[in-house]
């Protein structure tokens, strides 16, 4: 039945819970668009016949038209919901996405992410005085400027504000400025230890 | 749950939400219908090729199973080409069950989009529409208490049995209630100020393994 | 709102401390000198306390006898009784966590406050249910605190939103558009 491919895309996306981004289904999308093109062409032909008197075709034309609209809705909703998930990545992960996630994105989505990133950066520079304000920091009200963290994986050298560096080695523990490590915690590199 | 991803919610009620994945899957659910006149060249398109037995046309009076979105698109109260029947859960016999004790019904098995699908059924000018609308509303009201109490229950009782029987809308509501309670309990334990790993990141971590498997 | 944000707001409430130091240059935050009782915001009091620079004086209501009375009153009344502080829950947690040595019978206080909270939350659920059951259009919930509303807020507004939409189904106008085409 028409629309199955397009709804399949929606179904897969819906199953990926919690904002997870499944791989972009370029081939399925192409097939769904192809189906739409075919429906449209057949309708074009039948519309001319219907105009010439074949009124028995009207219901069939209407049926195809419904299928076209259905496909369109599924595809638009699929692409839109993916953008919502990609936007969330900027807030939860940061401005540089690991390859594992980028592999799941289409070229257009990567482009969109980059533009969103720039747009957000421009806005954040414009608020909060001369230095700007990083709105992705301090998602929760901070209790202190420095926090205790444990390293969950080997990360390497990490520069803190005054230019000094610390070596983030697996299982090592550090007392670091909160604003410097919030993103690393959200990325799963560090773990925030409460005293 | 991710804290920055907010999906488009279902419309519920008279209007569907165009971009809602929930509503798209809801309108994919089928409902019984009947061809009121012969429908040429539609048997294969509707997946009824063999049943009709007369080539690619559907004879008048044939039974059909069509998804909600198509039923809505083809519905025409002036020229009834396809008529739509009520799925049994919205019929009078079931409405009586609901009014006796809505809590006993497994809405997930019977739904799973009981409220949204029921609301959309009202598009077909069925004479029983007022009773259907009333039953749907009353069902929500009667089941509300149990959903609230179990989602806000502080004693970590096993709620999986209950959740299994909830329709999709009720499940989302249950999760919202549970999140309110969990957030509070985390705060009570002094964990609210802890910065935590993003659930999106956790997902990718897990996903990597499954990707390698397949 | 997150509970952490409610707590953040509560940290602005004033609490009395007895500083064990004097420092001239902190006039702007009101610490005057050794031994003088001063009211300061909770966040500052906790900071000083953590560095052992002060002794904390519990708020008047943070007292076993008063809290017992409050709990009994809450259990007796059908409606919500006024709380001694709009941040009673947050302040109890903060002060007991950071300054339990300055608060007599800290454990009893913790239990009493929690009992009161539980009674109030049960009441809140009860009134939410009767609100939904009777399909009321508005409700008056005086004396609820931010943290209490927060815990059930998302759930309740979502449920009421659903109910509102299911009620619009009852209007016969439904489906009339499709009749016209």
From TrEMBL, chain A:
Tell me where it mainly resides. nucleus
Q: Where in the cell is it found?
A: Chromosome; Nucleus
- GO cellular component term, pick one: GINS complex
How far does the signal peptide extend, from start to end residue?
Answer: none
Q: Where is the GINS subunit domain?
A: 55-127
- Recorded protein name is DNA replication complex GINS protein PSF1
| The entry's keywords | Chromosome, DNA replication, Nucleus
> Is Ligase there in the keyword field?
no
Question: From which domain of life does this come?
Answer: Eukaryota
Q: Which InterPro entries match?
A: GINS_A, GINS_bundle-like_dom_sf, GINS_Psf1, PSF1_C
Gene3D superfamilies in the record, alphabetically?
1.20.58.1030
The family database entries (Pfam families) matched by this protein are listed as:
PSF1_C, Sld5
Q: What does this protein do?
A: Required for correct functioning of the GINS complex, a complex that plays an essential role in the initiation of DNA replication, and progression of DNA replication forks. GINS complex seems to bind preferentially to single-stranded DNA.
Subunit structure, as described in the record:
Component of the GINS complex.
Q: Which residues form the DNA replication complex GINS protein PSF1 C-terminal domain?
A: 143-194
Q: Which GO terms describe its biological process?
A: DNA strand elongation involved in mitotic DNA replication
**Protein family per UniProt:** Belongs to the GINS1/PSF1 family.
Q: Which gene encodes it?
A: GINS1
TrEMBL record, chain B:
Keyword Nucleus found: yes
What residues does the DNA replication complex GINS protein PSF3 N-terminal domain cover? Answer: 20-74
Q: Which residues form the GINS subunit domain?
A: 91-187
Q: What is its main location?
A: nucleus
Arranged from A to Z, the UniProt key words for this protein are: Chromosome, DNA replication, Nucleus
Subcellular locations according to the entry: Chromosome; Nucleus
- Cite a single GO BP annotation: mitotic DNA replication initiation
Q: Which Gene Ontology CC terms are recorded?
A: GINS complex
Q: Does the keyword Nucleus apply?
A: yes
- Please give the Pfam families that the UniProt record associates with this protein: PSF3_N (PF22466), Sld5 (PF05916)
Complex and partners: Component of the GINS complex.
Instruction: Give a short account of what the protein does.
Output: Required for correct functioning of the GINS complex, a complex that plays an essential role in the initiation of DNA replication, and progression of DNA replication forks. GINS complex is a core component of CDC45-MCM-GINS (CMG) helicase, the molecular machine that unwinds template DNA during replication, and around which the replisome is built. The GINS complex plays an essential role in the initiation of DNA replication.
Q: According to its UniProt record, which protein family does this protein belong to?
A: Belongs to the GINS3/PSF3 family.
Task: Indicate what this protein is called per its UniProt record.
Answer: DNA replication complex GINS protein PSF3
Organism annotation: Cairina moschata (Muscovy duck)
Automatic annotation (TrEMBL), chain C:
Query: Record's PANTHER family?
Result: DNA REPLICATION COMPLEX GINS PROTEIN PSF2
Set out the biological process GO terms recorded for this chain's protein.
DNA replication; double-strand break repair via break-induced replication
Q: Where in the cell is it found?
A: Nucleus
Name one cellular component (GO) term.
Answer: GINS complex
**Mainly localized where?**
nucleus
Function, please?
A: Required for correct functioning of the GINS complex, a complex that plays an essential role in the initiation of DNA replication, and progression of DNA replication forks. GINS complex is a core component of CDC45-MCM-GINS (CMG) helicase, the molecular machine that unwinds template DNA during replication, and around which the replisome is built.
The GINS subunit domain covers 61-165
Q: How does it assemble?
A: Component of the GINS complex.
> Which family does the record claim for this protein?
Belongs to the GINS2/PSF2 family.
Task: Check the record and name the InterPro entries matching this protein.
Answer: GINS_A, GINS_bundle-like_dom_sf, GINS_Psf2, PSF2_N
Residue ranges annotated as coiled coil are: none
What protein name is recorded for this chain?
DNA replication complex GINS protein PSF2
Taking every annotated instance into account, which residue ranges of this chain make up the domain DNA replication complex GINS protein PSF2 N-terminal? 3-57
Q: Print the keywords alphabetically.
A: DNA replication, Nucleus
């Amino acid at each position: 039945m028409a629309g199955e491919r397009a709804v399949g895309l929606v179904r897969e996306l819906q199953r990926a819970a919690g904002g997870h981004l499944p791989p972009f289904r370029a081939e399925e999308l192409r097939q769904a668009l192809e189906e739409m093109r075919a429906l449209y062409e057949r309708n074009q032909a039948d519309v001319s016949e219907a105009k010439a008197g074949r009124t028995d075709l009207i219901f069939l034309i209407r049926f195809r038209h419904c299928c076209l609209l259905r496909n369109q809705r599924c595809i638009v909703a699929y692409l839109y919901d993916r953008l919502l998930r990609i936007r969330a990545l900027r807030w939860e992960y940061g401005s540089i996405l690991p390859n594992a996630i980028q592999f799941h994105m289409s070229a257009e989505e990567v482009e969109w992410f980059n533009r969103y990133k720039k747009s957000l950066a421009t806005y954040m520079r414009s608020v909060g005085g001369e230095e700007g304000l990083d709105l992705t920091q301090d998602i929760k009200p901070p209790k202190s400027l420095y926090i205790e963290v444990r390293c969950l994986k080997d990360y390497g050298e990490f520069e803190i504000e005054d230019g000094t560096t610390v070596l983030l080695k697996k299982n090592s523990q550090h007392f670091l400025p909160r604003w410097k490590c919030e993103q690393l915690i959200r990325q799963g590199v560090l773990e925030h230890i409460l005293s | 749950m991710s804290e920055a991803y907010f999906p488009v919610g279902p419309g519920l009620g008279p209007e569907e939400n165009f971009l809602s994945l929930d509503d798209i899957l809801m309108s994919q659910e089928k409902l019984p219908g009947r061809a009121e006149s012969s429908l040429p060249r539609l048997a294969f398109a509707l997946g009824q090729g063999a049943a009709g037995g007369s080539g690619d046309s559907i004879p008048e009076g044939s039974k059909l199973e069509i998804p909600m979105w198509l039923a809505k698109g083809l519905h025409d109260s002036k020229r009834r080409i396809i008529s739509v029947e009520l799925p049994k859960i919205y019929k009078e016999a079931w409405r009586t069950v609901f009014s006796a004790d809505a809590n006993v019904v497994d809405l997930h098995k019977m739904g799973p989009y009981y409220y949204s699908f029921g609301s959309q059924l009202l598009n077909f000018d069925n004479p029983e529409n007022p009773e259907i609308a009333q039953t749907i509303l009353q069902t929500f009201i009667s089941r509300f208490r149990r959903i609230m109490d179990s989602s806000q229950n502080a004693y970590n009782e096993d709620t999986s049995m209950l959740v299994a029987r909830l329709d999709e809308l009720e499940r989302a509501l249950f999760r919202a209630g549970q999140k309110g309670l969990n957030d509070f309990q985390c705060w009570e334990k002094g964990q609210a100020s802890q910065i935590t790993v993003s659930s999106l990141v956790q997902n990718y971590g897990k996903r990597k393994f499954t990707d390698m498997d397949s | 709102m997150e509970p952490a944000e409610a707590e953040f707001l509560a940290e602005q409430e004033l609490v009395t401390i007895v500083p064990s130091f004097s420092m001239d240059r902190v006039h702007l935050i009101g610490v005057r000198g050794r031994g003088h009782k001063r009211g300061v915001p909770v966040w500052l009091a906790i900071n000083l306390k953590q560095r052992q620079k002060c002794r904390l004086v519990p708020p008047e209501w943070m007292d076993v006898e008063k809290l017992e009375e409050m709990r009994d009153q809450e259990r007796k009344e059908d409606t919500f009784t006024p709380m001694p502080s709009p941040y009673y829950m947050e302040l109890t947690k903060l002060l007991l966590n950071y300054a339990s040595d300055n608060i007599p019978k800290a454990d009893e206080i913790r239990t009493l406050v929690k009992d009161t909270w539980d009674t109030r939350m049960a009441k809140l659920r009860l009134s939410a249910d009767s609100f939904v059951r009777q399909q009321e259009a508005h409700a008056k919930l005086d004396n609820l605190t931010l943290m209490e509303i927060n815990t059930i807020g998302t759930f309740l507004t979502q449920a009421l939103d659903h109910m509102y939409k299911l009620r619009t189904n009852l209007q016969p106008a439904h489906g009339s558009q499709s009749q016209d085409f």
